[in-house]
Amino acid sequence: MHKVSRLVLSGLMMLSLLSCGKGEKGVNVEYDSDFEFSGELWEPCDMTVDSEGNLYILDRFEGACVHKFDPSGVYLGKIGSLGKGRGELFLPLSLAVSENGQIWVADRVNKRLTRYSSEGECLMVIGPEDEFQMEAPEAMVIGADGVVYIADSLANTIWRVEPIGTVQIYRSGDELHNPEDIMWMDGGLLVVDSGAGRLLMPDGGSREVVNVDGEEMIPHKIKEFGGGYVLLASKQRSEKEKGSKYQPYLLMLDGEFNVTAEHKLDPELVGDVVVVSEDMLLVSFPKMHRVVRYKVVE
């Protein structure tokens, strides 16, 4: 197992939002010290923040657990462990936290959904025996009504799970092409349909994503941020460029989903983005075994 003595919320990086009307690129970058963490973090993927500001980071591989931190970054412990028994996880890919602090985790290998108390006690398991078998639960969100929605990228399905455990298909079929993320809005559910390179809006419309230069982008993960949105997206790299096949970016969007600024990320596959304060974002890099902090400045 890859071991680290620090949680790698590594490198404080500055993302300047310059002249939003013109959509100029943020270029100011500055590193800071690592975030202290005495445990092990193998492949951090999904992340979320609860109503009290506590941070949850999902370790998808050998760690197979949820790491919890308080708003100041103090480690509070982990929830779940590697295995196939009740309350155990095996390649968990997404999580969500309800208003009452309960933690929901979607598990790819075990093909089930597990709900924990805020203290980490396993409260409910929903899986194949309940006629619920996920293939690749890439994202999860809790709606205003307390219902859990799960984006299954391989099954091209959005699942709807009631708090009592009843499961239904919310959306599926040819209209979905690798849905990687979902976001609850006042009007309903927004779907990041990566395979088709678009955002599916709650009103039934869709939006393609282009960067500040008008180039088409592949959207991956989205979060609300400061009256607008922050979007993890990528574009295909040229054959001459070294590194991963796709170049990831952070895109800042206004309230109408228009790109106002962008920041080029390390050329590695990224996991998720989460907003931790009015000027701070976190981005997970599972294959690099780290989470990076970005500061947004006007």
What would you say this structure looks like, in words?
This protein has 298 residues and is mainly beta. Helix content is 0%, strand content 49%. It is built from no helices and 26 strands. The protein has strands spanning 6-7, 9-16, 35-36, 44-49, 55-59, 65-69, 75-79, 92-97, 103-107, 112-116, 122-126, 137-142, 148-152, 157-161, 167-172, 179-185, 188-193, 198-200, 206-208, 218-225, 228-236, 246-253, 259-264, 273-277, 280-285, 290-297. A four-stranded mixed sheet has the order 2-26-25-24, with no helix packed on it. It has a four-stranded antiparallel sheet with strand order 4-5-6-7, with no helix packed on it. Strands 8-9-10-11 form a four-stranded antiparallel sheet, with no helix packed on it. The termini are far apart. The model is unreliable at 1-33 (pLDDT under 50).
